[in-house]
Amino acid sequence: MTALTLSTAAVAGLRADAIVIGVAKGSASKPGGPVVAPGAEAVVQAYDGNLAGVLETLGASGAEGEVTKLPAPAGFKAPLVLAVGLGAQPQKDSGYDAEALRRAAGAAARALSGTKKAAFALPLTDPADAGAVAEGVLLGAYSFDAYKDQGDAKNGKNGKAPLAEAALLGGKPRDKAYKAAVERAVAVSEELNRARDLINTPPNDLNPEAFAAVAQAAAKEHGIKVQVLDEKALVKGGYGGILGVGAGSASGPRLVKLSYTSSKAKKHLALVGKGITYDSGGISLKPAGHNETMKCDMSGAAAVFAAVVAAARLGLEVNVTGWLALAENMPSGSATRPGDVLRMYSGKTVEVLNTDAEGRLVLADALWAASQEKPDAIVDVATLTGAMVLALGSRTFGIMANDDDFRAVVREAAEEAGEPAWPMPLPEHLRKGMESSTADIANMGERMGGGLVAGLFLREFVGEGITWAHLDIAGPAFNEGGPFGYTPKGGTGSAVRTLVRLAERAAAGELS
Ligand code: BES
Ligand code: MN
Ligand code: ZN
Predict the structure, then answer these.
(1) Which of 8, 144, 268, 397 is least surrounded, with the fewest CB atoms within 10 Å of its CB?
(2) 2 CA to middle of ligand 2, Å?
(3) What is the annotated localization of this protein (predicted)?
(4) Measured from the CA of 290, which atom of ligand 1 is nearest?
(5) Which residue has the least CA distance to atom 9 on ligand 1?
(6) What is the DSSP letter of 484?
(7) Which of 427-434's residues contact partners 24+ apart within 8 Å by CB, and which partners?
């Protein structure tokens, strides 16, 4: 990952390959033209005060994500200035919002792949801004080339190696709060990028056993207690949901429990992740065109894993238990059939009407297992339904909950983290569609509102009186389009930052 430092060096004398500055869209007082953002005063001066004019000549407008490169002024040690668009200027003097900085830093870091060292002279008003720029750089510079041909060592496997070093100017390197903000950004981004790696790893290399082994190793490294239930243990414990989904695969399912505990904890947060390492649909096989990206179906488990490790690295004063429900959903002679009835860990029976509605089955067992510890709250994360993608698009995740206040808390955490999320209801009338003539409930209901039906199904496997929220990240988990801001193609690490923020809130006693 890119090496990050806070620096007070004067920009002209900096030995770097590029200087990054911010440029915003003109305001009423300067219609149309770009405006250079604070933090780049020395650069503006070196262009005789007319940098905005130069940028305008080059076609820059300050639009979000826009990148304009220009030769550095005479006397600068760095050869290149890269102006990155911040979008609209902030209202009044409140400074740019963290997400605008994060996105701009990410776009700049992406544009600088193949470069060794860059200095970022973006507008920082407080430590949180420094943290946002750090996150943007570290997340934007991400690339996944473990499976690319070696290429030449100098340029990296992908043609261009990620930006190697970044110096953040304008912060206070000796100030504790600035240092802490950057350290937090490094821990969270490293774990988030690791979640992306897991999501991007092809399903022939990342089966439930392999995922569990990665979790075990990381837990050991960070002092997290880990327990892995293999197939035998799952049979013994009666985890019919996880076993039923894994039954068709040559790679057996696993349930991984990660426990991070703090001696100063006042709250206990449980996180549950859907970890389908590949979703073929099972006997209700997905048609071609719908299964090429289904290695991403373990994104929820990857997010939970990353969040628990990040909480441990940050030493948060809260207990966080992560549950990874891992299985591969495949069709075969031993696979669960549509029409089969599973006896779940909770004791309830489920008639499987569609084997492609497998996520709710593995989550049901993990939710019930998490409930046995009576945590203060449970949050599950899952690439659960195509219906949620239809409802909210590919960048926003849906939040459902059995408690309106908690749903609002999760939404606030997402907002603070810079992740688009939206509250969704759990309409009671949709429960009827899941009535089964044979079992306690069916794993499918009405097609319309399918994301909410799935939420209602999960709710039945949450222990009595436990506060619970469900994040359906089917849209934002995997970016099939081009990269934008700090979001790469492929696995995005959706929900990691929201979960970390939630754990921080829990540590501060702010769960409801
Ligand atoms: N993993 C899919 C949901 C999904 C769709 C994730 C698109 C990411 C992108 C899930 O297991 C699934 O197949 N859901 C079905 C449920 C249906 C059969 C009730 C769906 O949404 O079609
Ligand atoms: Mn499915
Ligand atoms: Zn699935």
Answers:
(1) 8
(2) 36
(3) Cytoplasm
(4) 7
(5) 474
(6) B
(7) 427/452, 427/456, 430/456, 431/456
Name the residue with tokens 């696993």.
254
Question: pLDDT tens for residues 20-29?
Answer: 999 999 876 6
Residues 6+ apart with CB under 8 A from 169: 7, 8, 9, 11, 39, 119, 120, 121
For this structure, is 286 an active site residue?
yes
Predicted local confidence at residue 159, as pLDDT:
66
Q: Residue 279's pLDDT is what?
A: 98
Over residues 227-243, the mean pLDDT reads: 98
Q: Which residue's C-alpha comes closest to atom 13 of ligand 1? A: 356
Bridge partners of 397?
A: 421
Q: pLDDT tens digits, residue range 38-47? A: 999 999 999 9
Tokens of 203: 């399903």
Beta strands in 330-487, from DSSP E residues, in sequence order: 341-343, 349-351, 377-382, 397-401, 421-423, 441-442, 467-472, 478-479
Interstrand relation of 467-472 and 377-382 (parallel, antiparallel or unpaired): parallel
- Domains of the chain in sequence order: 3-172 (3.40.220.10), 193-507 (3.40.630.10)
Per-residue confidence (pLDDT) for residue 157, from 0 to 100:
56
Q: State which amino acid sits at residue 91.
A: Q
Both tokens of 148, joined, read 């690319």
Ion ligand 2 — residues with CB under 5 Å? 279, 356, 358
From the list 223, 218, 386, 395, the residue with the least C-alpha distance to 304 is 218
DSSP string, 422-451: EE----GGGGGGG--SSSSEES---STTHH
DSSP state of 112: T
The structure tokens listed for 419 are: 């992740």
Q: From the candidates 295, 360, 407, 505, which is the catalytic residue?
A: 360
CA-based end-to-end distance of the chain: 36
* Cβ–Cβ under 8 Å, residues 281 and 292: no
The mean pLDDT value for 473-500 works out to 98
